[in-house]
Fold this protein.
Amino acid sequence: MSRIFPLVILLLSFSTPHLTQVGAADWSQFRGPSGNGISSSTGLPTEWSAEKNITWKTKLPGKGSSSPVLFGNQIFLTAYSGYGLALEDEGNPSDLRLHVISINRQNGEIMWDESVPPLNQVQKITKRIVDHGYASGTPACDESGVYAFFGTSGVVAYDLKGKLKWRADVGEGKAGFGSASSPIIYKDFVIVNASIESQTVYALHKKNGEIAWKAENIMKAWTTPSIVNVPGGKQELVVNQKSQIFGFDPDTGKKLWTCEGIQDYVVPVVVQNEGILYCLGGRSNRSIAVRPGGRGDVTKTHKLWEVNIGANVTSPVYYNGHLYWASDRGIAFCLNAKNGEVVYKNRLPTKGRLYASIVLADEKLYITTRDNGVVVLKAAPEYVELARNEIATDENLFNASPAVSEGSIFLRTHGYLYRITNK
């Protein structure tokens, strides 16, 4: 049974421009406002290094694999400290602190850093856990505040000034990899996929964390839910899980349709374009194209194609009739979105696995490797490498997907946050 911990909510009685300004430049959730990993920003840098095009660099108070998000003049991201910083750490799990941090977009100064202790039993540090840590979910933000998901430590909500609004317990289940899903905001709800923690998707009220609705029996899904458009101007909530793709009414949680999916656990985010959803996942790396908007079992009526190629962890982008992604095995792919045929498949300059997802902006594809910097490709159905960018002074892992806004790339490592801009 979920437990909600409401606190006194202080509403802002006046407008504070540097906190509340909002516009198209915001990157408010994992993979941007649409969840598709696409930015309309132009003039982005193609090349950078420790000495070139770094506007500022901020040392973070803890490690983490979550991506930065932006609202107005604030950047938000999560981190952890106190426990699990190294495999040899024999410290006390109760010393773990889970941070939500606000950073000034213009100068990189930390505006506030708030943290909470664990809510339930902490997953013991292992090689798999230390690989990405206890702060892997990217927060979501809007004018009401910032919302972060820490797995068994639940959902934490702060207002834009760093005042704790509430905490919500969404389960204490664990898995070998730990937690990874990110929350999204829909109208007055914070929607969280707690498949690992309780096999449930929750819609929580933004104002107090109380449950608005929940959908149960969500199996082996580390994926972040997606809000997708359907004909008639309506929207659906899509969750890709083991064996099934589900479509829900995001206002009520009612299940609208199901489609036979990937016969394995799922991590990548569903992306959409012109009424078609593209779903990747599974250790066997499969991809499925399906139309939303149906009712009941739509496997025979709405599934367009399925191919035996895809990604286990990373999410794709759609651009000009093609799907692009870099798999966690370090291979760049381009697929024809009409039929799933491979256009190119090319090994990237990395020896390690990839956790970060590809980002499309300014007709360029930005691929963050863990150990060999960011590879920039031309957004075209041929493999054209434009640059390889390393920050030689930073030996931390690059696990997080970048955020893009107003001509800048915001790139996070285990130790630092960078703003990268053409100078």
Observations:
- The helical segments are 17-20, 127-130, 195-198, 299-302.
